[in-house]
Structure formats: C-alpha cells, structure tokens
Amino acid sequence: MKLSIPGRASTALVVAAATLLTGGAITGAAPAPVAAAAAPDLPVANVKAHLAQLQSIATANGGNRAHGRTGYKASLDYVKAKLDAAGFTTTVQQFTSSSRTGYNLIADWPGGNTNQVVMSGSHLDSVTAGPGINDNGSGSAAVLETALAVARTNYQPTKHLRFAWWGAEELGMVGSRYYVNSLSTANRSTISGYLNFDMIGSPNPGYFVYDDDPTIEKTFKTYFTGLGIATEPETEGDGRSDHAPFKNVGIPVGGLFSGADYIKTAAQAAKWGGTSGKAFDACYHSSCDTSSNINDTALDRNADALAYAVWSLSS
Asked: Which residue numbers are catalytic?
C-alpha cells in the first residue's frame, strides 16, 4: 500500500448477491437477488506457496521486488507463467516511472459478456526496503490463486472476468493509473466493478471492507457474516491503493484490507483477537515484511472472501 497519498476500501455459501443482469454496472440499487454460484474454498497452502515463491524471488534479487528492479520483473514472470499455463489470455503493459521501466500484467478469462467485466487486482511491487510479502504479496497471491481456481473449475460466468497485477503502486498507484488512463471511455464503461486487494494477511489483523460501491460492499459483508465475523469500514487506505484511479473515473470499486500501521484498539482486539495497542502490521514497509509476517487465518479468510465475491458478482 502506498504510504502517503490520501476513496476508501463462507465456507463457500450459496447466497443471494444483488447484481444487475443488464446495463453492465454494479450499483447500489436493489434489484431482485440472483442466486450466486458456489465459489470454491481456496486452499491457503496454495496461496502461501505463491508467497514462498515471491519471498524466494526477493531473496535472490537484493531483498525486494520493487518497481524497476529485477525482483519485480521476476515476480511478474512467475505470475504470468502460471496464468498462461492455466489458459488465460495475458497482456503485459509497459510504462515508465522515475526513469525506470514498469509493468502491469492483465489476465482475461475467455468467455463471459465483455460488456460486463468484473475485475480484480492487486499491486505486485514492494517497497525497496523489503520483500513485501504482506504488502502486497498477500493480495497478489490471493488474486492469482482465485484466477487459477477459475481455470481449475472451468468456471463459465455470465460476466467476463479480468485479473490484474499492478506495477509501481508504491510510487503513487502509477501502474493502475496508467491502465485506467489508457482505456477509452467506452472500455471504462464495460467494467462493472473493480475489486482491490492490498494487504490481506496482516499479522495482527483486522477485517476491513471498503465502503464504496454498496453492492460490492454487501457481497463481502455477507461472506464474513456467514463466518460470524464482524467487519469495519476500511478508512486507513482511502485513496492510497489501486482502486483510487478506477473510483476517480466513476468505476464502482470495493475490496478488503487487514490493516497496516494504524494501531489496533482494545475494542478491535476484543472483536477479532490479536494484540491491542500494536500495529496491524508492525513490519509495514520494512525489511521484516517477510514470509513470517503473515497471519494464516486472515489470509485464508480474505482469499476465500475474494473468490466468493468474484463468483457472486460475475454469475
């Protein structure tokens, strides 16, 4: 997650998700509920295996996976190879920032109505200080495993699925802004919603849901309600991650977050466990954001919530 740039952020339940069948937009209106397809339970071991690969890449490339560094390109190559093998159509988008070449990776699952695109993304870059395993290997690995689950199950949604891994988020959402700015007005209008996942395995986790688009927000909250977990609106990351460029051009956005350097309150610790008076992620933007800086339970729950939302909003 970008540090200083100032909107916001079962199990496999088969529940009603409010979606529009026509028009291409996920809105806050209340159409008749449509039964959602059952999303798979993502094996957290698979998500952690991706994190282990990202850690190994960082270790072999100067300890980080930052924009313009060899560790970032190696991370992108790892993700792309997995998606290509699974049958996705992948596109690498190149841009320049701070005199260094950056890359976005876009993966489209063949089929579905391309005038109604459900898009999920995460930033793949770390800061230069460390390997960035929670920030944001966690979101990147969960989005990757969700995409691979689409392929494994041969999911054929009504809407078109697109997944993205952004470069240079830590420099101010550079990659995602470049992507949004490259879209024509007509292409922007085809994106029903953009779901963002930036830091979802924090070691002292909270369960935060972006309170932007009401339908996307409700979908995530329905999932967590099914687990008996109370959520809170996500405010720490307002405008500080890759949903912001989408939101700024009127595309509906939502997402999940488990907390960065804000301090967990006593009330939050009573609700979620963990330690009050301590940051959600004390290794935020630090060299200690390694494979040991992950709460497996939070990672598992948030990854499953991601898959649940993708299936619910695209069916």
From this structure: 169
